[in-house]
Amino acid sequence: MTPNPADTETPSSTPQPAAPGKASRRRRKPRNAGQPQASPQAAQKAADPPQRPQQHPRKTHPVLERLFELYPQLFGARFLPLKLGVFEDLLARHPDAFKPEDLKVAMGLHARSTRYLEAVASGKQRHDLDGKPVEPVAPGHVHHAILEVFRRRQGRSSEDLRPQLRAQLVRAIEASGLSREDYVMAVGGRDEAANAALDEAFAELGERHAKREALRRAFEASGRSVAEFAEMYGMDPADVRRALGHPRNKAGGGAPAN
């Protein structure tokens, strides 16, 4: 059988260029020859972006759902701090509705939720089952709720939230009406980061008090009314009154009698 010239190469010491205008008839070996070919399904899976695991919404404890139905003003769209002893009040008011162990678990989940801690951190009063404010939240409870909410938020944020923490602590300290020593005794702990944040809050309070004292002395030395003093220094009369602790009078800003 005579070989086909197209299937043979002409022996020569110098490679022969392909004829112009014609593609070389030498067959090239496929780049992936010898390697197993992926199935179309595998190729499509490799091309698709990785799928995130599906997030399933958390199920609400059935007792909390029932509490929401009974007391939407306390367990509904917004939470309010609950009075101490509300667990016993719920059992007494609904003896057949809740099992003590189930209610205890549900109330624990509620008290540890971020939304409830935010309500406590706000400094709002504690409420009874009828939604009436009955008692203030202890300064220590407010303080620790502020710290816990900060830790949770900071853990989810790349932003430094310490300035917000400091501002909240300053408001909590002022609202407590306690001296520095009494406040530290009420909220003190061994957490170095928390104690450092508390020191920063007291330092800011010290600066504020120093500015208020300087403003008070300047106001008393001026002999002017609040409105005149504010105009002289380019300040808002309302800000001056707040800094001096003066109530707004009907005359529109006169200095109160000593």
Description:
- The chain is mostly helical.
- It has a domain at 60-136: ProQ/FinO domain (Fertility Inhibition Protein O, Chain: A, Domain 1, Orthogonal Bundle), CATH 1.10.1710.
- The protein has 12 helices and 2 strands, in the order ααααααββαααααα.
- It has helices spanning 40-47, 62-70, 72-75, 86-93, 100-112, 114-121, 139-156, 162-176, 180-187, 192-222, 226-232, 237-244, and strands at 126-127, 133-135.
- Mean pLDDT is 82; it is low at 1-15 and 248-258.
CATH superfamily caption of the domain at 60-136: ProQ/FinO domain
Order of helices and strands: HHHHHHEEHHHHHH
Low-confidence stretches: 1-15, 248-258
Tally of alpha and pi helices: 12
Helicity range: 40-55%
* Strand tally: 2
Gross morphology: elongated
Nearest-integer average pLDDT: 82
**SS content category:** mainly alpha
Sheet having the most strands: 2 strands, antiparallel
Percent in strands = under 5%
Radius of gyration using CA atoms only:
37 Å
User: Do you know the CATH architecture of the domain at 60-136?
Assistant: Orthogonal Bundle
Give the strand order, joined by hyphens, for the main sheet: 1-2
**Distance, first to last CA:** 130 Å
CATH structural fold name of the domain at 60-136: Fertility Inhibition Protein O, Chain: A, Domain 1
Instruction: State the name of the first-level CATH class of the domain at 60-136.
Output: Mainly Alpha
